[in-house]
Fold these 4 entries.
Entry 1:
Amino acid sequence: MNGIIELLEAAGLTGRGGAAFSTAIKVKAAHENGAELIVNACDGEIGAAKDAWIVEHRLPELIEGASLVARGRRPKVRYAAHRGSRTAALLHSAGLHVLEAPHRYVSSEETSLIQLAHGGPAKPMTKRAPFVFGGRDSQGHRVRPTVVLNAETLLRVSQINRHGATWFRSFGTELEPGPRLVAISGHVARPGVHEVAAGMSIADILALAGGLPEDARHVGVGGLGGVLLTAQDARTTIWTGGGMKRHGGSLGPGIFTVWDPSECPVETAIQLLSYGAGESAGQCGPCMFGLPALAGDWAAYGRTPSTDRYQRLQLRLDLLQRRGACAHPDGVSRFARSALATLRPEFAAHANHSCQKGGLRHARLV
Amino acid sequence: MPDSSEGVRIAVDRVLCTGHGVCAQTLPGAIVLDEWGYPVIRSEAVDPEAAALAVKLCPARALYRR
């Protein structure tokens, strides 16, 4: 009966939502606690598109994967998607129980979905212990054992169940096995969702979308919680955890965004950081006050760099780590820190007023 | 990294915390406040008795033992 857990362990499947936690451990805890399942198909990260792709093209496998995780006499499975989205409509028409999350950045975060499913607002909760064991929200209300898995994770669960661990491990690397879906968007010929694996070069991955254009200068990897690479680094980096770690990143949720070279990248980064600040749920002080302060100081430094401003920015970045109920402030500070390092030549151009694009053209979000 | 064997570990429920700043008084050194008055945990492992008192005195009931 419980063969699936051993199978997942042998396959080495990790969560495809970005955190890369062992799926076997999560599913084992879910079975032991009779946890309800929330399938996260929100594509909540900026640039994400694979959850929608799965619901559109691989729904039967997704449902099968969910049935392998949600056990018990009356298994409860909810499919989370953004309210009014095409994904939500497809899930509804398949007769599934849809959990419609509001269109806010943090509303598709794991604990936000759990709170929403149990009748609360779609805002993150403090995780004193994993909610797969059950827990309490901040008002002290009990929360039933619930586990959240990304849609791609469940697709992989069903594939591993059908084809076995050896098949799964024939893709990717020893450390990061299995096929992975990535979303490629921005300044490329054919944006879309593609199946790749860890160990491929970023250049080869982007080739699936028509390649990294000659005039491209920056590539975002991982969305608002990810990092920014120069096009040159993107051409030479191998997409593994280790390869990305050198740039402060990880495989994350599998998102590549080639930035439009006609826009000043400093302005693009400022827009992203301002968006991130506005998307704080406003619950945790360090995030509610810290993110707008970071966005403001980052913009001030980016437009008119000075040593004082740089030092203040470093303090701001340090104060955003592990100080929220969720990892939103951590993610935004990671991106801010990465963009700060990657855009150094652009700051120099702003310092001597030689940037040709500064402040004139505005980037388009998402 | 602080050695957790030297004391109990404390954490802040960031949703509950409203920045009264009492913990910075009850656990000086281990907790300092940022410019908005929210706690910054400098050392997670603190003396068990001091931790118990600080948890009891937190007006938002946000400070807890891990």
Note: Chain B touches chain A through 15 residues (CB under 8 Å).
Entry 2:
Amino acid sequence: MNARSPLASAAQSAVLLLFFGMIVFPIVWMVLTAFKLPRDVHSLSLNFSPTVKNFGIVFEAPWNIGLRIVNSVVVAFFTLAIAIPAAILSAYSFSRFEFAFKRGLFFLMLATQFIPAVVIILPFYLMFRDLGLLDSRTGLVIVNLAIVTPFAVWMLKGYFDAVPVECDEAALIDGASRMAIIWRVIVPMALPGVIVASVFCFILTWNEFIFALILTRDKAVTLQVGLVSFRTERGDLWELMAAAGVFITVPAFIAAVAIQKHFEAGLTGGAVK
Amino acid sequence: MHDRFTRYLLLVPALVIVLGTTLWPLVSAVTTSFRNWRLKRSPVPQGWVGFDNYVFGFEEPEFWNALKVTVVFVTLDVLIAVAVSLGLALLLRRAGVLQSLTRAVLILPFAMSPALIGVSFRFMFNGEYGVLAKGIGWLIPPLADVIWLASPGYAMAALILSDVWHWFPYLTLIFLGGLAAVPVETEEAALIDGATPWQTVLLVVLPQIKGVIAVALILKTIFALKMFDSVQTLTGAGPGITTQTLAHYVYTIGFVHYDMGHASALAVVLTALLVGIGMFYTRLVMPPKAVAR
């Protein structure tokens, strides 16, 4: 577009600036709070003497955020380590082969995503209670697979579709097995897509709340559920919540920013087609 | 050729996971929904009660309250989030410093955990010292004395605001992707023909991305219907139960009252609702041809 009045473009800049501020403000405010002493937490002034003490306190009893971090990392790692390879195999099959009920099966995979978490957790809670898997990281990995796997299959199929079938055929002629084709040809060629899908699944698992809230009590509590414990009879310990929030946010932000370039293409590619 | 079996073998791991972690729980929830099973009284399921859990469930005023809260929340939340993100995406099409700065932070709220967002907004909406409560009071003086999370309407507003904040940047990214596919020529032609910029956007640009808008509306609706995390950490469904969504209601019946039969019946109803909307979504996104590559 051309010939805009300076007034209109100034108004536009103002609106953009407002949007930018709206997006970053809650994050900035949380980070600032994490550096505040308890006496400064209730003040809106930016003139406070910053402290890093909160980041240490959250590692002490009763908060034990070190253990929560380990739990969150272990659960996310094993969830991805199981879900992504399984999703790669079936995404390849969906992408390359014709078979009976293909459309129905793919539809089923997607449909499972619409089942609310609270429905999935009811039977698992009862089962884990019988198996002694309540408050265990194993239990969390199992239920997290439910939210991550169908999503990964769906995203990966889109990326595999973009790899020309000729690549498979060339490798087949050279005598490669399907497994070799998947791992040595398709995955390397669609690697950005595999990374984007993995990062998405990581963010989903890392930020998962309701499963951990219901299934864990003490040993297996994750970072997300750990947040709830800062609500004490002494009131809300906002500066500690904010410090824990920083630990929650940093890995997810790093992962998200790392795939930012591929992000738009990735999601909309799947959604718009 | 051995590929005949390979294609099925490759599906096995993911299918086992999906069947075991989503369809089995669903079937199990349906079964439990026909039984009397209060965990506080008995560790094992009691007798079959037919549709009692459903009938009883529909008689509870709390159910209708949760349904009403969900409808209000979903409607306002989806409309505001989609409208705001569509507007922002239109502003972000042009190149510029402010544009690229804003584009760069769009992904951040999406990566943030809903539970943490709830906690942060509870802090910022605190009646005494919340920075948002104070800021809004300063901008709009009549709202200066509002205790946000203690008044039903305002608690709902805070919940919607927090969820819009979580989602609108992500939806903006989706719209930017859609807008990138709109040929500039169509817009230029409209302007040359004498259309105003508003007319151009409304009558030329938006109709070309109506598919993307539909996808965004339905996707957001599904996520809004599932809303639990920040209900729990921001308002705690309160004051009272005035911000209790259906998902939170099922949670309360199941894991506060431990009435498994009743909770399962409610869960089945919620699932039916979501799968219905979800199937509509899938048809829209995935016309029959798309799968058969």
Note: The mean pLDDT of chain B is 90.
Entry 3:
Amino acid sequence: MGWLRKRRQGARGEGGAGNGAGGETAGSEAAVDLENLRRRFDGFRALVESNNRVLSVIGDMEEKAQGDFLFDIVYVRRSIETLRDGIGDIIERIIDLGGEPYETLRARAQAIWNQIDGLLPGGRDVLPGPFVLEFARIGRVHSASVGGKNAQLGELRALGLNIPDGFAITTHAFQHVLAENRLADRIHETLTELDIRDQEDLERASATLRERILTAPIPEDLADAVREAYGELTGDAGPEPVALRSSAVGEDTLFSFAGQYSSFLNVPPGEILDRYRQILASKYSPRAIYYFLSHSLEEANLSMSVGCTRMVDAAVSGVIYTRDPLDPEDAVIQVHAIYGLGPYLVGGVLTPDVYRISRDSNEILERAVHEKGVQLKLDAGNGTREMPVPEELRGRPCLDDRQLVELARIATRIEDHYEHPQDVEWAIDGTGAIYMLQTRPLRTICAQPSFELPDMSDHELLAEGGTTICPGAGCGEVAHVSGEADLAPVRHGSVVVAANPFPALAQVLDRAAAVVTEVGSSASHMATLVRERRLPTIVGLVQARKRLPAGTEVTVDASGTRVYAGCNTELMQARRPEYDLFQDTAIFDLLRRLLALISPLHLVNPRDPEFRPERCRTLHDITRFAHQRGIEEVFAYARSLGRRQDLGVRLKTALPFPVMILNLDEETGHARTKPYDDQSIPSAPMRAFWDGLLAEKWPFAYPEPARLRVDRRSDQGLPGEAQFTESSFAVVRREYMLANLYLGYHFTSVEAVLSDDAARNLIRVHYKGGGAADKRRRRRIGLLEELLDRMGFEHTVKSDYIDCRATGMEREPAELNINRVGRLVMLTKQLDMALSNDRITRWYIEDFARKLELDRSKVFPL
Amino acid sequence: MENLTAGDIMVPLDLYPHIPYWFTVRQAIAEMETAEVETDGRRSIPRVVLVFDETYRLMGFVRRRDILRGLLPSYLLEDADEGIRSTYDIHVDPNLSDVFAAEEGDIAEQANRPVSEVMNPIVHTIQVTDTLLHAVREIVVNNVYMLPVLRDGKIVGVVRSIDVLHAVAKMVL
């Protein structure tokens, strides 16, 4: 009361110092201040709305990541865009409220978005840019303009590894080709009408689209740019053939597109533009269309870049898996190698040598050397040609120990850089120089072999051997395929048996129950694709076609590399837990990786010195940070006003401490001056809160003087008696309250939204301090923690500070809990004093739980 | 040993049960029932709970018998304001309680009285630097069970008769 009087006097004093006009000025200043405060509050409320929206999207994504709901890339994109809007809004709002200290949030958010966009397949609009970019100027951040393969090559180059010199023809160039020839709409139309499950329809659409691209002229400005870049690449050495490789946007993400697009080796200068167009057209090959449509990837976002490099005349080439894809925990590097050029390996023509090298000691643990009768070599001047491998080399390892150790060293370096297992293509030329040709994330599967398998001894074993590419078991009717023409008749649920894992097999993978091939290795493109689909697959099972006649029913035990006659559902069931059909698809993996950048909360405690914008590592951190600081900024402003003038209207209450209410719903210029009373509080949540405070008695029973015969030493207590009723105030709206109370020595701030919309409802309590010894204050916080926990609040506690919140409650339980918070605030007033030990604390917890009807059974579910 | 002061033998305030004045008799009972004072590895049930005001000034104390007295319906008490001695000199026949059919419910109701209604004022205190002998004298002469110990005018602990006795025991045994 003294505080209030003093303030009033202060206000009068100011007015009295001037004349009558001065008084009016003070009044209009007050109106301006109020208007400013209201504006800030509106900003803060909008921040809270965005915060809630962001949190609800994050919650939904987390739920989807549990694997119980289906979703597609459209869902992921939409969620990401909602987050982008929300986070952007939150950051601008907090900067508006608090200014410059918060501007670093923009950079923090941008850094997180860059990572998120890097995971999304082609989520980025193609911005106008150069038609060509040298590798020297490319890093992985450029994948939107140069595609995955080129971007990673630039990254490897920057890492100091050897790559062939070259340049990228950008996605912008591709868009230019489409735009100049007015193709974008026609492509979209054709794809929209397409039924990808209909093989003939797929082939027809593909043929139409490829024809359109192949007949479209390359715009002259683009052709000039390519010629100029080629001239710079070859320099004075004169014309030489180059390699042209597809580099699609998104292929460096979890969507592999392995081997879906064309590449051309040994291309003479005069054919570069034609080959370039062919690669663009391969974006619409049946298997590529099938791939992106079946993964719900939006065609329009999948742009195509092409890499143009000097030819590496490979003596040996191959693939490194920086981990064993079926046992990624094992510290082993796998090197697959053949003589000649790489396509005979990744295309599944040959069974390569496979070496296993210890990651730690670089010791060569295992060499599986295969007969390599042929190799792919550069033809004189143009293209490639199959040639026999000299007799004496066929059965020998194509890599020596020194080369293996060098490759292992490079593999470790690359994996360390990407912090993820990698699938690396490489080549060694005639001089022994090692070139990196590509790197992308390696898809791994953790097979868990510890399952009870049924006794198969009385089942006829048809074939045994080969290599597990993807574990599991599947049964169906055998379908033999040896080329693209055999694909259309393959029925759903077939066991596909092929001579080799040729790339077009991709089109039937979704119809297959299992795949068996006679040659091949785990390093082929098809291997990547079947692992992506969790399709039980064995490669290198000799004479598979002979042993498994077309039309017979078989069970492929891919994990055990055996094929049995008939259909054995028991075995399939037993193998089932080894993989999950949905959870490990690329889209699910993508969501999980995105969530790692979105949902973990590192900034939990506002009192922590680490609670700073620079420490925001996820989007959740950003919104948490901004929300917290938003409250503080608004109140700091409100308090700065409160010292200078009366703010709001007094609450005439049965409780003996002054409270000012600022009603933000009031129209400017019609500010109420008449005090509110306990019944006329203009805010639903504040009424509930106040009823709670009133329900617990305030100590009126100050002892009669007769009982205070003592000399009450005035200096006995804690200093600053007046402080204990300092400026309690509440900022309210009809459905909102933010109340700051100083009762005794503790500070309580309660924020609440109470409406019919459960998603908006919020109760937020901050509680801090006390007059008793530290231990007792902490006991009181412990008591609050437990009771609020029983009420369904989330909380963080540090020492004698608690911050807790409940969200998403329906109106009725929310109202009850706001009321309980009011009662708790009163019940715990100076309770710290009484909490001399843990047992009494426990007694109070149970006593208050009874009073507040917090038996566990009565707690409202969230 | 002769240099022992009140500060050396007192129970520090943060180990001693205390409550604010508006707490109920019921809460004072809870404090007595659950609080244990631990000194020198010995535990004891507190016989007295200190009472403070909002600004942490010591206002008074309540003993077991004050609490019990506070639980009695007023019609069983004569001379209520006479203070401590009257609790021993009951002139009303206790069997009257049967006549008035007092029930447990009455006790529960009485237990909700504020503790300030049954507490005793602090009359005697000692300073943290006072000697053991001074503490013994204050306890004996004033016939009290415990003394608040002040430093610079602020309470920092209490010295109970048992604490004094322990200190003396170490000297003489």
Note: The helical segments of chain B are 6-9, 25-34, 64-71, 96-99, 104-110, 132-142, 161-172.
Entry 4:
Amino acid sequence: MNSRITQYCIIRNGKIFLNGEEFFSNDIAESPLVFFKSALKHLNISYPKFYKMDSLSKLAFLASEVILIQDKARGSFPNDRVALVLSNSVSCLDTDVEYQKSISDRNNYYPSPALFVYTLPNIMIGEICIRNKYQGENIFFCSEAFNADLIYSYVNMLLQTNKADKCITGWIDFLGNSYEAVLFLIEREGNSNTIEFNIENLNKLYKGI
Amino acid sequence: MKVYIESDNIISPLGFTTGENFSALLECRSGIKFHKDKKYSQNDFYAAIIDDIALDDHFSEIADPTGYTRFEKLCISSIAGALKQSSVDIESHRTVIILSTTKGNIDYLSETSETLNPKVYLWNTAKFLKEYFKSRNDVLVVSTACISGISALLMGQRLIQSGIYDNAVVCGCDIFSSFVLSGFQSFQAISHSPCRPFDADRSGISLGEGCGTLILTNSKPEKSSINIRISGGAISNDANHISGPSRTGDGLTIAIDKAMGEAVFSPDVIDFISAHGTATPYNDEMEAIAFATSGLLKSSVNSLKGYFGHTLGAAGTIESIVTLESMRQNVVIKSIGYETSGVSQELNVAKSNIQTQLTHCLKTASGFGGGNAAIVFSKVENE
Amino acid sequence: MDELILKVKNEIITALKLEGMTPDEIDTDAPLFNEGLGLDSIDALELIVLMDKNYGIVVEDPKVGKQALESVRTMAEFIKNNRKS
């Protein structure tokens, strides 16, 4: 039996889409961070840790919150049956550059531990796991562009070999002022009126809007 | 379907082949040295750094070192070294290269995102390796902090088991940099002497650099009398904190238990554990608790961080290769730097090299982002 | 001293990105970690960077750091007694 794409979220150009419908828009925000903050407010989430995250983790966090809106049980118990498989093209270069600034001037040399910890692209996975108590399989891939083949192969393997029941997967990219998040919730026992999980559909939804 | 390790290579300050490195370990030689190099830090530090001249000398047997970055030289040398003793065709459409790294060409990083050198993009490094080795498939990049190496090995095993590829060349590499050193210094996590995993006097990590490559294949290698396969593995998350290890070790326990479950083993068959053992107070204690919870207190344990330092994205591959060589030679390498237990559980940490039959061994890793990974290697004696 | 306490509170809010919090909401004598402000180990390290950056105080001994960072008041007193800039 094929797994299903039961929820998907796209964040681009100051807009958030959930399952193809516009969920939130603030395309006049003067920066991505202002947009992210307004989105968090719209989601009505009080989570002080959000403000400590780097931009990449903020974007991943928002997209995950949107696709998990309907899952009321999340976070109420540790769950090692949910996997996270994320990817992007720039790794965490946005924060790498920021951190590099703090160490390049010998006379103004104050490396920040709070910044350094975000110079790893898998930290965004950790943030989503902490928020939802997810303890399952997790991995981060870096590829030049959205690689539906790789995501499908790996996630399908996790679900078919019973290493997970559900998987949050997709593309979270952030560098300078450009960003893009396309996140899918894949369920092995998903409702049959949802979208079938396959490479073609991943590509279609990614390109969709 | 069974996945075997067909050949391997380690490049570190201790040598340019698995053999050279293992000989150094048997003699208890460490690659960690005292450094006073203002290029890396205003303060003195201990680290395992590969000598520039030795690296270029070695590399010049393959190609002219000018025009290659340090990271590229390490990856090329190590992959070429592993291929030398392998029958796997790297140019076949059935072979995939998987690169495990945290920071790639981090020494080329600039201070603005507008002027980034293309070399700092990990996918670009992957593209470079694809062209260099004439790989038919895209080189895949795994980057999950300290668990990258084991994650990449498990990814290779899983893609082979899914029938997508027959062979995987898994290369883990990271270079020493002021970027990473300053970060761990800001965490007050760098030891003022060579690191001492699991010891009562441990005070933090020593960093290192290196590259380890393993070639995985689904066909049983014919030439050697002892074959080793990956019999199980799992990745988990603490879901606790982005930098601090879990106090209960529950995340690592999940990974270990699932890995042993996949191998269909009970804890008492695990002869030896190659631990992550970074020598920070919290990490080693967390690991000790997890090993105890998983029923592994009888197994011999070591950490190789006292020899190689923490090589980040290379740690999982280098330490796995040493585990394989230990299995081939039936010897547990002494956990250098360890004298008196500094953890709450009675671990069996190796105080000297131990000759003993090694059939099933566990390799673990844990890191920033709360990730944990465990892999089980099992010996298959040829009839 | 009150002036320094207020300054330190503002610096903590900025350095630790305590979004939406004002100095009045931070109790001068409440523990900074776990309960109270609920800060964690990275925050502690960040406050040590703050003391170096803004006051020229280098804290190398973790025990000294721990005592100094018990509350805003202990932190301000530590800064007053050790500041170089």
Note: Chain C has one domain: 2-82.
